[in-house]
């Protein structure tokens, strides 16, 4: 059996082995909801005073990480202690991701590991809404907290500590802004600007988990950013399921929000999260204008095209065609040549022919994204595409290998363009003698031969880039 992860820095690197044995659990457990909370109030207060240590681990997108920070901050403000070592915990919480089949397997395996720890367990995040039965088959006693139910965090932990099963999966009307947080990185503020989205992609389980778009009010978002900048954050990540459709339900849009977010006092930069091309097209030129004008926006753009074949995009229900993606890349690079562009590709989608895959390769060669997140297609339960016939796994694997090789070549080549660049870097990580930061195009910069004794996370230093790799620029400090 694999040892439980004891260091939060290893969370994203977790690759668990298979556990064969799962202990027998008691299925005759009561499920509590809002209607019965008051009956347990006195017992809950006694339990809260007796047991306080909580371990939280999170996986997946930046929104999931933000959710874990909110859960941690909320519990901390109610008297619970968030520990940095799982051996010290009295209760464990895992915030799960369900974006891919392989991710789901890792999440379920991790739940098995945490179950074997014989401590009360709360499973939160997307998997609770999409694969509840699979979770409860592993551990019938586990408490469940949905991705849009964070305002029930305290009730969930109180009930779970009292040996009761809490299930809070209904979507709340509460916004995930201006809530207590315990940040993983003190220099980075992750601000959720909306929940849900307007798309209905045929392969996506996230829509099942998070539902339709609910944009948060600009004033609430601004208030959160002001607080976090004052608290020492100089990287502000604006995140949601799809930033491109922000504001469509409240008569606003992302451009209007960014104009407000860039007018605040303080030395900070905004990192804009993923935008789907179908909604980006509606605000493209206004967005380019605000990107070019505002120094407080990282010159970074994440637009997932998913395929270079219009036939496959139509079957994916993506709502855009290849021309829309190419035009966005062309127009942004025409105005901001050094911008870092990231995209996502799904290889081996059902009915993807050799010609469809060739069109994807041609698109990537033409547009040369700096970063390509590549996923082999996998069926997700409850989605439209799960009813389609898969192409052979060996074809998916081969196409993934080909695209990974092309992606590495493009990333290396584009990073070499930065050699000799001199400018400021925001330090966001220091580990022993390793100093890492981001430049204004959100390129990862490793600073070599640096005395870390006088450096701190959040500090801004001037560097000169002397080399590069597929993933990073390498620089020397000029101070």
Can you lay out the helices and strands and say which pair or pack?
Blueprint: E1 31-32, H1 41-50, E2 53-58, H2 62-77, E3 81-82, E4 91-96, H3 101-116, E5 121-125, H4 127-130, H5 132-138, E6 143-145, H6 153-161, E7 165-168, E8 188-192, E9 194-195, H7 206-210, E10 214-215, H8 218-230, E11 235-239, H9 254-261, E12 269-272, H10 277-293, E13 300-302, H11 310-315, H12 322-335, E14 340-347, H13 354-367, E15 371-376, H14 393-416, E16 422-431, E17 434-438, E18 444-448, E19 460-468, E20 473-477
Parallel strand pairs: 1-7, 2-3, 2-4, 4-5, 5-6, 6-7, 8-11, 11-12, 13-14, 14-15, 18-20
Antiparallel strand pairs: 9-10, 16-17, 16-19, 17-18, 19-20
Helix pairs in contact: 9-10, 10-12, 13-14
Strand order of the largest sheet: 1-7-6-5-4-2-3
The level 1 CATH classification of the largest domain is Alpha Beta
The percentage helix is 25-40%
**Biggest sheet architecture:** 7 strands, parallel
Fraction in beta strands: 15-25%
How many E-type strands?
A: 20
CATH H level of the largest domain: which superfamily? tm_1862 like domain
Radius of gyration: 23 Å
Structural class: alpha/beta
Measure the end-to-end span: 49 Å
Number of domains: 3
Report on the architecture of this protein:
This protein has 479 residues and is of the alpha/beta class. The chain has three domains: 8-168, 3-Layer(aba) Sandwich (Rossmann fold), CATH 3.40.50.12160; 188-414, tm_1862 like domain (pyruvate-formate lyase- activating enzyme), CATH 3.80.30; 422-477, OB fold (Dihydrolipoamide Acetyltransferase, E2P) (Beta Barrel). It has 14 helices and 20 strands. The protein has helices at residues 41-50, 62-77, 101-116, 127-130, 132-138, 153-161, 206-210, 218-230, 254-261, 277-293, 310-315, 322-335, 354-367, 393-416, and strands at residues 31-32, 53-58, 81-82, 91-96, 121-125, 143-145, 165-168, 188-192, 194-195, 214-215, 235-239, 269-272, 300-302, 340-347, 371-376, 422-431, 434-438, 444-448, 460-468, 473-477. The strands form five sheets. A seven-stranded parallel beta sheet has the order 1-7-6-5-4-2-3, sandwiched between helices. A five-stranded mixed barrel has the order 16-17-18-20-19. The longest helix has 24 residues, at 393-416. Mean pLDDT is 89; it is low at 1-32.
